Amino acid sequence: MKKRANQLIAIICLMMMHATVFAQDDQPTGGPTVPRYVSEKGYWVAESNINVPKQYTIHFYNNDHVEVYKEKVEGVVLKLQRRKVKMNLKKVLETAVVAWEKQRQTKENEGWVVNAIK
C-alpha cells in the first residue's frame, strides 16, 4: 500500500513538471514591449520650474534630434505621469513631425498641446 502511494506521488510530480515545461513554451519570446504612448517618429521633453508649477515649455523632436515644435503652456498643471497626457503628447508630436516634414520649419505656440489636453 505504501509503495503504491509513493508511485502515485511520483507520477503526479512528473505530470506537474511536464505541464510546467509546456506552459513556459506558450509565452512569446523577445525583448520588452514598448508602451503605446511612445512614438516611433520622435520624442518630447517637458521643462518646468518647481517655483512656478503651472508653467511648462514642451519641446518636440524627431528621431534625428531636430526640434520640430515648441509650445509654452501656462495656467495648467500637467500630470506627466498619466497615460492620457502621454497619449495626447504623442498625438501632438506626430502632428508636429508631419508638419515639419512638409515645411522644414520649426513652429512655436500653435496651441496644439492646449487643444489636445482639453
Notes on the protein architecture:
By secondary structure, the protein is α+β, with helices and mostly antiparallel strands. The protein has a domain at 42-117. The chain contains 3 helices and 4 strands. The protein has helices spanning 2-25, 83-103, 112-117, and strands spanning 42-49, 52-62, 67-74, 107-108. A 4-stranded mixed beta sheet has the order 1-2-3-4. β3, α2 and β4 form a beta-alpha-beta unit. The mean pLDDT is 83.
Keywords:
118 residues; alpha+beta; four-stranded mixed beta sheet; 3 helices; 43% helix
Fold blueprint:
Layout (H helix, E strand, L loop, with lengths): L1 H24 L16 E8 L2 E11 L4 E8 L8 H21 L3 E2 L3 H6 L1
Parallel strand pairs: 3-4
Antiparallel strand pairs: 1-2, 2-3
Unreliably modeled segments: none
Q: What helical percentage do the residues reach?
A: 40-55%
Order of helices and strands: HEEEHEH
Q: Given the structure, what is the number of helices?
A: 3
* Largest beta-sheet characterization: 4 strands, mixed
Radius of gyration: 26 Å
The coarse overall form would be elongated
Mean of residue pLDDT values: 83
Q: Enumerate the strands of the largest sheet in spatial order, edge to edge or round the barrel.
A: 1-2-3-4
Structural class: alpha+beta
How much strand content do the residues show? 15-25%
| Number of extended strands | 4
Distance between the termini: 74 Å
